[in-house]
């Protein structure tokens, strides 16, 4: 072996790690055996964002929504382990199995893959696979070798195998290759770069204590080289010719038995990710952080693959547990009992100025060190509240303890105050402390070690009180009454809120001197007051937040409202509510009562029943917009089809959807719509949309992604799909139908013309006759409805309908006159001569009315022996015209069946004033008629309209 002295430099070895003993817990979403992913061997992300997962029994791809199998339909045999996957520089996808490789050209559509087997003998490491030129590198007989197949692996009779190192270079244990660089690890534990097939440029060897073969080498984007064995780590800045060796912290011996599965992954943000015995760990700027699996029962499973996706999400493969997505990567971090937390149920926080974060749990008081981020147990005991008095003393306690702590963490409790049943405490500016028990509010003087009862309660206290930040007063609720309590015991009753009788206020936050927020299990309240009364209360029920119980509330410096519930967080920025749940990385959706706290740097701490979460990137709270979805495939009856189909298909249609937004996948859904098919947008959580029937024509399919957490919507993706009509609806078919129909119709016409013409003539005559009969019947019915049967004059209803028309048509200066006529002594005629003679009189009067009036007049029978005449005339002529009509009606004598008789009429005349009701004019005419009767009958009397009289 030829060794160059190019990298001669000092070597730094670190064997003790006092700053590495801290950890955090991963928040994972598993795709395990229940979803068909029992064990993962490898992972790869393709350029379109698709993730390939190699398992011990096949290959899957993940399109951002669901995992789907790549099996025999793609030319890949199933039920055998997929050891590695790589995409070559010329877009060939290589899947490595035992002693064989499968190759398919990748055109950007995963559904178009078609694998072909190429036999490769002598593979000595199934887990080393790198793209190189027009092929790939793997380990053949402990030597890196290039496997290539020319332009087409299908047409090639056999593959070309070219070893990249000769025997002169020696045997190696592992290697890595990227962008023309090949780094190898020799069996003497040296890290070397390949110069030629015979020559290696090696870094100085590690210390003698590191007598362990390197299992993995990784090359970062900045040219840095990393190496890993079960217990040791190396980092080299190759351009600067420096190297650093160290022993890996947290090391046990489990990985030594599974060294083949060791991975070493540099990330875009400068970290290096690898495994440790119970999860993964990350190294950044010389510092290690270990991450536990969230379920201790799974902590013995080995991480077999680590994939940092291009969108920033992180994916882990496990040998037994399947595939998992790390939730909340770069958004939040979590701690649990595995990380030093004494109890998973966390209740409260307090950040000591320039000091640690204090954590109250179900059975302890812990603190988080600022520098190392280690959680350390301070003391035992249920801790529900933590505070600091003006003297700098820390106080904590629960229902059975009240403890004063020293000013610095780690020295234990200074003293325990013999107070029981204290539920919470608040500091006072004068150095005293407000204490709240289940039955009273007290003040405690630390200097004199004395308590004083400020107020007792009889089961009225509804809330852990909050101290007004602007004044030394306590605010709380007595049932539904908001109360302000002064240190001297004075109580100001501010007002009531709409609180149900059995509701209990669980948390309250005073964000300024005039407003506060409060929560009960079933509602959120925003109360605006002027310190003497409530001005406004806004109540939002628990159903508004799509959760079961509300638990906590906080208003941060950005004026965002944080609401804790039994199903995660809800956050309001003044415009919209968004959710943050375990699908976004929270330790648990079960937020503790009063379990929200804002740190000094504006980040938020969340207490849950399964640990604590720290939201570190506040920009992601409201900005988690989903990525633009993609349309991966259009298929019919299982076969991929072109969006512009050459022929009609009646087997339905499937449209496969996908997205490269892997980070937000658990909280995204698709909205889709087909123009001409769907009347409105439809929602699906699936990656496939099915249409049982697709109509012919041009239709555009639209799809966009929506975040269930924030309500944000992605840009829209669309594709035009053209479905030709079926052959029986084609233009040629329609022309043929028309021609055949025309010929058939003409022949039928010629055969039936004569008979049809005869029948048509008979039918036309019959229709004309029936039409004339119907017309005559209609006219008769109309006449009967508008005329009096005996006299042939208009009836009362028809007369009333003519009034409006005659008013509208009269000449300016004229008036519409109403003359009411009555036959004198008509009863005597009936009594003496009989009713038939009376009818003869009425019929004769009807004839004389028709003969004696002009066409513009309207004469009618008003009822009995009364007649009415409507006419228009100038007021001076109106009475004269009525008198002439009366004379024409009485002269000459009436020729009756009983002989000639003289019949006289009495009449009353008036006219309708402007806008006067018809009934008023009739009433005046009737009065004039009775006046004529009273004056001796056989005369006419006129009564002027009111306007004329005035």
Automatic annotation (TrEMBL):
What Gene Ontology cellular-component terms does the record carry? plasma membrane
Keyword Transit peptide belongs to the record: no
What's the protein name? diguanylate cyclase
- PANTHER family from the entry? DIGUANYLATE CYCLASE DGCM-RELATED (PTHR45138:SF9), REGULATORY COMPONENTS OF SENSORY TRANSDUCTION SYSTEM (PTHR45138)
**Which residue windows are transmembrane per the record?**
727-751
Q: Which GO terms describe its molecular function?
A: diguanylate cyclase activity
Superkingdom of the source?
A: Bacteria
Q: What class of enzyme is it?
A: transferase
- Which example biological process does GO assign this protein? cell adhesion involved in single-species biofilm formation
- Enzyme Commission number(s): 2.7.7.65
Q: Which reaction does it catalyse?
A: 2 GTP = 3',3'-c-di-GMP + 2 diphosphate
Sorted alphabetically, the keyword list is: Membrane, Transmembrane, Transmembrane helix
**GGDEF domain mapped to chain residues:** 814-945
Q: Which organism is it from?
A: Gluconacetobacter dulcium
């Amino acid at each position: 072996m030829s060794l160059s002295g190019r990298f001669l430099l000092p070597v730094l070895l670190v064997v003790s790690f006092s700053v590495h003993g801290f950890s955090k817990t991963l928040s994972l979403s598993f795709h395990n055996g229940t979803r068909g992913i029992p064990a993962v061997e490898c992972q790869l992300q393709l350029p379109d964002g698709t993730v390939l997962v190699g398992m011990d029994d096949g290959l899957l791809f993940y399109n951002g929504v669901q995992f789907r199998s790549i099996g025999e339909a793609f030319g890949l045999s199933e039920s055998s382990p997929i050891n590695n996957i790589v995409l070559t520089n010329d877009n060939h996808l290589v899947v490595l199995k035992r002693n064989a490789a499968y190759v398919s050209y990748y055109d950007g559509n995963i559904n178009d893959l078609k694998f072909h087997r190429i036999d490769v003998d002598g593979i000595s490491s199934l887990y080393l696979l790198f793209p190189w030129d027009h092929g790939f590198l793997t380990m053949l007989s402990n030597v890196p070798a290039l496997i290539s197949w020319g332009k087409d692996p299908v047409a090639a009779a056999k593959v070309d195998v070219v070893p990249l190192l000769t025997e002169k270079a020696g045997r190696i244990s592992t290697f890595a290759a990227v962008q023309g660089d090949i780094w190898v690890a020799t069996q003497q534990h040296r890290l070397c770069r390949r110069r030629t097939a015979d020559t290696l440029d090696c870094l100085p060897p590690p210390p003698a204590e590191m007598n362990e073969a390197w299992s993995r080498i990784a090359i970062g984007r900045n040219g840095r080289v990393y190496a890993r064995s079960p217990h040791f780590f190396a980092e080299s800045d190759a351009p600067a010719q420096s190297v650093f060796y160290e022993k890996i912290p947290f090391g046990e011996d489990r990985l030594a038995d599974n060294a083949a599965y060791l991975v070493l992954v540099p990330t875009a943000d400068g970290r290096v990710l690898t495994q440790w015995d119970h999860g993964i760990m990350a190294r950044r700027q010389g510092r290690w952080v270990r991450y536990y699996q969230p379920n201790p029962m799974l902590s013995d499973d080995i991480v077999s693959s680590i994939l940092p996706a291009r969108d920033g999400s992180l994916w882990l493969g496990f040998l037994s547990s399947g595939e998992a997505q790390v939730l909340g990567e770069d958004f939040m971090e979590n701690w649990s009992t595995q990380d030093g937390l004494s109890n998973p149920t966390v209740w409260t926080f307090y950040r000591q100025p320039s000091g640690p974060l204090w954590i109250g749990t179900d059975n302890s008081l812990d603190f988080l060190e600022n520098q190392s981020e280690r959680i350390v147990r301070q003391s035992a005991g249920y801790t529900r509240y933590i505070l600091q008095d003006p003297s700098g003393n820390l106080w904590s306690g629960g229902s059975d303890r009240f403890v004063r702590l020293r000013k610095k963490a780690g020295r234990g409790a200074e003293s325990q105050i013999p107070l029981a049943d204290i539920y919470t405490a608040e500091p006072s500016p004068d150095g005293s402390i407000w204490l709240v028990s289940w039955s009273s509010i007290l003040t405690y003087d630390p200097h004199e070690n004395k308590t004083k009862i400020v107020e007792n309660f009889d089961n009225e206290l509804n809330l852990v009180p909050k101290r007004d930040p602007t004044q030394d007063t306590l605010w709380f609720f007595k049932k539904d009454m908001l109360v302000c309590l002064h240190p001297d015991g004075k109580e100001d009753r501010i007002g009531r809120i709409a609180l149900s009788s059995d509701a209990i206020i669980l948390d309250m936050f005073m964000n300024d001197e005039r407003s506060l927020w409060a929560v009960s299990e079933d509602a959120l309240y925003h109360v605006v007051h002027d310190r003497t009364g409530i001005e406004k209360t806004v109540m939002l029920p628990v159903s508004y937040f799509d959760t079961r119980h509300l638990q906590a509330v906080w208003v941060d410096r950005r004026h965002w409202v944080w609401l804790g519930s039994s199903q995660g967080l809800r956050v309001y920025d003044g415009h919209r509510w968004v959710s943050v749940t375990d699908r976004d990385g929270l330790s648990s959706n079960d937020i503790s009562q009063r379990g929200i706290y804002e740190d000094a740097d504006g980040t938020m701490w969340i207490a849950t029943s399964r640990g604590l979460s720290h939201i570190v990137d506040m920009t992601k709270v409201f900005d988690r917009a989903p990525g633009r979805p993609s349309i991966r495939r259009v298929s019919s009856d299982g076969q991929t089809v072109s969006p512009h189909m050459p022929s009609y298909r009646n087997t339905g249609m499937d449209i496969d959807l996908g997205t490269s937004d892997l980070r937000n996948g658990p909280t995204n859904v698709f909205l889709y719509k087909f123009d001409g098919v769907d009347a409105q947008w439809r929602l699906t959580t699936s990656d496939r949309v099915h249409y049982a029937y697709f109509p012919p024509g041009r239709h555009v399919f639209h799809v966009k992604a929506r975040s269930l957490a924030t309500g944000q919507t992605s840009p829209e993706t669309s594709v035009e799909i053209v479905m030709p009509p079926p052959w029986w609806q084609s233009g040629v078919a329609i022309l043929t139908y028309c021609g055949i129909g025309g010929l058939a119709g003409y022949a039928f016409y010629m055969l039936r013309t004569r008979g049809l013409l005869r029948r048509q003539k008979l039918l036309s005559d019959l229709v004309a006759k029936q039409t004339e009969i119907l017309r005559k019947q209609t006219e008769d019915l109309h006449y009967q409805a508008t005329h009096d049967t005996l006299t042939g004059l208009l009836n009362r209803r028809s007369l009333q309908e003519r009034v409006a028309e005659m008013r509208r048509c009269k000449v300016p200066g004229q008036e519409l006159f109403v003359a009411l006529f009555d036959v004198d002594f008509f009863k005597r005629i009936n009594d003496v001569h009989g009713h038939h003679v009376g009818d003869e009189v009425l019929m004769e009067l009807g004839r004389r009315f028709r003969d004696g009036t002009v066409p513009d007049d309207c004469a009618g029978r008003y009822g009995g022996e009364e007649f009415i005449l409507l006419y228009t005339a100038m007021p001076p002529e109106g009475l004269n015209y009525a008198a002439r009509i009366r004379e024409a009606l009485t002269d000459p004598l009436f020729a009756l069946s009983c002989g000639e008789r003289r019949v006289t009429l009495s009449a009353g005349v008036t006219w309708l004033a402007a806008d006067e009701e018809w009934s008023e004019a009739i009433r005046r005419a009737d009065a004039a008629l009775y006046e004529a009767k009273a004056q001796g009958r056989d005369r006419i009397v006129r009564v002027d309209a009111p306007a004329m009289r005035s």
